[in-house]
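G., the chain you wanted modeled:
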Amino acid sequence: MYFRKKMYVVYSSIGIITMNNTANENFSMISARCNLLALLIVAVNGNVCYFPHTFSCTEANEELPDTTIERACVCVHADCIPKSNPCPSVNNIKFKDSTFEFISKNSFSNYSRLNSIDVQSGSINFIQEMAFGNQQHLKMIRITGNKINVETGAFNGLSHLEILQFQPNFISISSNLFSGIGSSLQNLDLGSGIVMNILNDTFDEFINLKSLSVANNKLKTINKQWFIRLTELTELNLAGNYILSIPSSVFSHQTKLKELYVPENDIIILEQGCFDGLDFLDELVLSGNKISDIGNVLTGFKNLTKLVINDNLLQMLKKEMFAELASLKYLSLSGNSIAEMTIPLPLPNLEILDLSKNVLQSLQKYNFEHLQTITKINLADNKISKIENGTFSNLSTLGYLFLENNKLATFSLFDFGNDNKLQSLNLQNNTLTSLSFSTILIPQSLMYLEMLWLDNNRLTTFPSVIFDYAPSLAIHQNSLQLTNNPLKCDCNIKSLTESRRNIILDSDIRTECQNPGCSVPTTMFAHGDITVPVGDDVSFICKVTGQPNPIVSWTFNNDIIIGGWYNIITGTSQIHFTKLSAINFGNYTCTATNNVGTASVTMNLFERPVKYQGTGSNNNADNKSFRISPSILPFVNLILLGFLTF
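Predicted structure as tokens:
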């Protein structure tokens, strides 16, 4: 309970101010002034508890408005403000879920030197003049949970205030609102109000301000004059307004700005030079706007490490968009309309790339060739049906790849290179009928792979030998998922059902797959020995059978390993050479191995002499020889579950 000593009526008049589009941007009052008459029944000291209160106040470690953790006096469900500090030993007071509706004059006058006042309330709606009288050393005020009307002079005497946060319940703000607050203010948060206009001189006294937020208000423009004296600003939040454009040089005085947030507005245009002067900008967020082209407004931002342009209208990536962003580590372009990547991304220090929820249809090898430090790529929710071989082969630091909800019919697991660090691969909700992977066991080509998600595809089988290449796969719960695939009972699937690894299969395949027939591999060539001249192209085709599906390898002269392809559906393995040279002639062996046995077959490639004609010159001199280098032939490629088009 609290005692109401003296009552009076306060009429609050809020005028709507419009901006005059003259050079000096003077503001004038609308001739027909719109008055909001708020009948506020306020008692002098009327919200102060004069009788014993029924709510509890206890000391506890709490997060203060500056995010530090300190001892505070916490009052829960307070319906009034205690006349004196309920916890005299601490100088921070916090009201949780309070029900008092206003803070009247000198509400804390009997409190000894307070450091912070923190009010969390859905009821409070008014702060009277001199509400914090006698607290000239107060450093932090945070009032959240409701929009607040503030009487002029409410903050008088708070020359040492460093942090102020509240939700303004008025359309226009000016310097009068902050009368009494000095240059010590470092953090001002006016988010989630109804502010439409900011007068030019509103923030002029806050020359040491580091952080400013006017997020989630109703601003439609950004005015350079608002920030002209805020030269120490490092963080600016303009999110959730109705801003239509970012004018040229609007932040030119904020040379120390590191974080700029302008998401969830209506921005269509980024004027040339709109970010001029922001040489130390570290993070820029422009998501949730209507931007279709960013041009070269970011060129040369050498300190930018995080760029977010989600949910805009970008349709293509141009080289100039990301030129000279040498420090960029995080790039998110999710939720745009990007249909193709016609350029390699010139971002040598990028670690995280998000291109999800676009309309990409294919990936080219050159797209990611410069991403030498990339650890995570998100390509989920596109329309990708083709990935060029070698697209991921040079990304030795890539650990997480997301490709769910695309249109892939095949995927190459051997495309990650021999020294890859791939840990997690998501291929859910595609149309996969085939997978391929390296047959080289030492070193294990997928030794870091822990999670592989293949739910909702069209796989009819899955290679049980994959654990020889990925020893860490399916160790953790739900880390290998194969549900909602038309799997058939064969020796591969039977082996999976008996495995102690964490493999998620449909229950019916586990119970119904009992006695599949297993068999020793067989091999045969589809042709005999081949005789061709130097410079010709040639293919060797080996027919393979066996259950479980065998590993197929190719060797040249019983020594050099040759890369090949294997189609499990047709039982065909193939290797191909273009423009043969003299060193390619010799014998080639196709070997198939499973856990039942091994089979191999050998054929010869002979050179056919070429008769030269004419003046004796070498008519074949222009035929560039093709040499199989051992350094590029470390793999044998086993294609499972369908046909891989190379």
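Residues 491-498 form the longest helix (8 residues).

Shout if anything looks off.
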